[in-house]
Amino acid sequence: MQAIQLRYFALLREERGLAAEVIETTARTPRDLYQELAGRHGFSLPAERVGVAINESFAGMDRELAADDIVVFIPPVAGG
Amino acid sequence: MARFTIAATPFEHEPFEAALRDHRAGAYATFEGWVRDHNDGRKVARLDYEAFEPLAIAEAERILDEAQAKFAIHAARAVHRTGTLQLGDRAVWIGVAASHRDEAFRACRYIIDEIKARLPVWKKEHYAGGDAIWVNCQHAAPSELSFTPKLDESQLYARQLRLPEIGEAGQAKLKDARVLIVGMGGLGSAAAPSLAAAGVGTLGLVEHDELDASNLHRQLLYSATDIGKPKAQLAAARLSALNPFLSVRVHSDRLGPANCAEILAGYDLVLDCTDNFATKYLLNDAAHLLGVPVVQASLYQYEGQLQTIDAASDGGCLRCIHPAPPPAGAVGNCAEVGVLGVVPQLFGALQAAEALKRLLGMPGQLSDATLLFDLATFETQRFKRPRRPDCALCGEQPSITSLTDVTVAQAPPSEIEVDLASIDHATLRGARWIDLREPAERSGAVPPGTLSRPFGGFDADAPGFEPGPRTFLFCAAGRRSLRAAQKLRARGWSDVWSVRGGADAVRAILTETAE
């Protein structure tokens, strides 16, 4: 188990109902983590359609997570 | 008889000449503008003129008043055509009667120059190749211009010329710059005046919509009195009023894979001010495939994202974050989920700021970073955006090598496959049929006139695949024809279909097509 700081944007924030939280998880990658959260909160977007940033840089969904990482899931948006 | 006339159809000049007859006049000068067959090196086939009539008439009457006041003439008349004009057609006619020839010539020259510069009349050039573009550099100049005192352009920029990063040299760079704004909605109508006011010399506007009442809460460039009018032309007129030294080009066709390269070719920088994934991915891909940097903003209710896609930087592209757009309908646009008006105003201004920084070569640009700003919390985040080695566009082995419409390319089979049994006989008889089977596997009858294009050497540019009548593709089972139809749809051709069930399904309806 490690603590991960999570932030959500746009559609994901709406679906989660909050903008930030800290969770304890065994997920090793953002993809595992997203799937865990999607199952729990009913996210509508599949993992391959969500972007992720870790500690202020965009990253791949399969990068290894470390304790206290700040993970931000970013859904695509197109409004203008 | 009014002194200025807008003629929607070809006109004779004699009645206008007759109205100028005056025994005091010893001189009568006329000018005619004709439609010529070339412009800017391109062969022109015909023209469409469109006028904002009440304003055009009022402005022309003012010009005639001015001519009357400035020159010793007795009378002047002018006519301007609208509608479709063929080569050689008369587009403008001006006649002036005066006591002496000098004044007649000078007044005539004054009137045509002012009409060209000030009348809200737009010209669409249709080229020999079949494409067309709205040209309006001088035509969009506003009526108010005639009443402003003579302006020195540098007066407009006095406050920014003081900035050490700008000065005379920076201002000259802005003057030389050509920026294309794709989408004149919330983002575009905020970004465009910022760039115009800053002195960016050439602005192109891509917008095919007309002004809707629901636009006005966030698109402050427009007025409620203009609802229903074409936004690109309203914007061009407003921007020229804001900065009369600006050159504005209007592109009123929808941007797509087919015209993207041609439109972008005339610009140094693109602002993606669109509100749909198809155009966002198209412009993202164009940034790499055509090498034109794209400043991209996308919004969601109270928040937005800002980034620049630049093939010359080591930053990633939209596909590095989101390799493909979300499924249709999964993420709403402004029309569906709503947006606070100040959000596009703010992000449009931020796009303009990023564009100016790029044109001036200032540090701190977003070519390798993405800015997220949430107005609900006033929190900003800035993320580095490295290239992903496996990105299909800008990675180490790119698989995307041409511009396509991503939303069409991923259209589900249900929207591309067709059951022949459900199609009426007339349609089946009038259709084009293409057999994608290899020669060795062909058996049984096919509709008369069927083209053979084996899928093994599939080439979307081969004769027969060009857009035309409704086209049915078939193979043995319907899988190859589905893939071929998807490829052709991705090139923007909408009336091409894959036959479900393949050659057997075709055989089943053959008796009907033969009737």
Core attributes:
heterodimer; A: 80 residues; alpha+beta; Ubiquitin-like (UB roll); 5-stranded mixed sheet; 2 helices; globular; B: 515 residues; alpha/beta; Aldehyde Oxidoreductase, domain 3; Rossmann fold; Oxidized Rhodanese, domain 1; 8-stranded mixed sheet; 5-stranded antiparallel sheet; 17 helices; 32% helix
Summed up:
The complex is a heterodimer of chains A (80) and B (515). Chain A is an alpha+beta fold and 80 residues long. Chain A has two helices and five strands; from the N terminus they run βαβαβββ.
General description of the model:
The complex is a heterodimer of chains A (80) and B (515). Chain A is of the alpha+beta class. Chain A is 24% helix and 31% strand. In chain A, strands 2-1-5-3-4 form a five-stranded mixed sheet. The longest helix of chain A is centred in the middle third of the chain and has 12 residues, at 30-41. Chain B is built from 17 helices and 22 strands. In chain B, the strands form four sheets. In chain B, strands 12-11-10-13-14-15-16-17 form an eight-stranded mixed sheet, sandwiched between helices. In chain B, strand 11 (202-206), helix 8 (231-242) and strand 12 (247-251) form a beta-alpha-beta unit. The chains are: A alpha+beta (80), B alpha/beta (515). At the A-B interface, loops of A face helix 7, strand 14, strand 15, strand 16 and strand 17 of B.
Strand content of chain A: 25-35%
Name the CATH class of the largest domain in chain B: Alpha Beta
Shape estimate of chain A: globular
Query: So, CATH architecture of chain A?
Result: Roll
The radius of gyration over CA of chain A amounts to: 12 Å
Structural domain count of chain A = 1
Number of E-type strands of chain B: 22
Question: Overall mean pLDDT score of chain A?
Answer: 90
What do the pLDDT scores of chain B average to? 88
Gyration radius of chain B, to the nearest Å? 28 Å
Low-confidence stretches of chain B: 137-148
List the domain count of chain B as a whole number.
3
What are the low-pLDDT stretches of chain A, counting only 5+ consecutive residues below 50?
none
Largest interface: A-B, 24 and 48 residues
Q: What is the class of chain A in the CATH system?
A: Alpha Beta
